[in-house]
Amino acid sequence: AANMCALHIPELIGGFHSEYPSITLTLQERGSAELLQALEQSEIDVAFAILNPSEPAVGQVHSLPLLQSEICAAVHVDNPLARRDAIELEQLADQTLITPNQDFNLSDNPVPFVQPGDFLPGTEYLQQIDSCLALVNKNMGISFCSRASADYYRYPNVVSVSIKPAISRTVYLVYKKDLAFYPSLQHFVRFAAEFWKTNVIL
To answer: CA–CA separation, 27 vs 129, rounded Å?
Structure first.
């Protein structure tokens, strides 16, 4: 599941299990691209993913927008940028960027000017956003994450700064099968949609 969405999944799964104890769920954590591929190959029934319109599989699945969150720049408290109310992307071009694995990063990459040589020396893509924020906490560079993720991990030396113009991303509930023929999947899709409408505010 997408990291931003995963912050809420335990509560969702717990609520669903209480209401539908006879339905068994098996969870997997993958990047959005891998999840879409798994849906296409019928390895999984449903996913929480960030959709990239350029992915061929996007047009072959059903998608329901669940939640949207602001993308911010995560910077060390001693970085001069931490004192700004908002940052333009061009102001970050000379910063060392720490980013999750490509399967976990933003589908609509907000930093197209970043080249591989601009990445933290000796470090390639990391696997998870919390690893990126841990390095930002040690003043090793900057990263990008959802505001929800920054608030959740709360590293003491990390400041989240807004980006202008504002950038956001949306997490979708994605499935391929016809719900009319899969009642268990239908229950889950409906439960998840109602859960996010009533329980998640970002």
So the answer is: 19
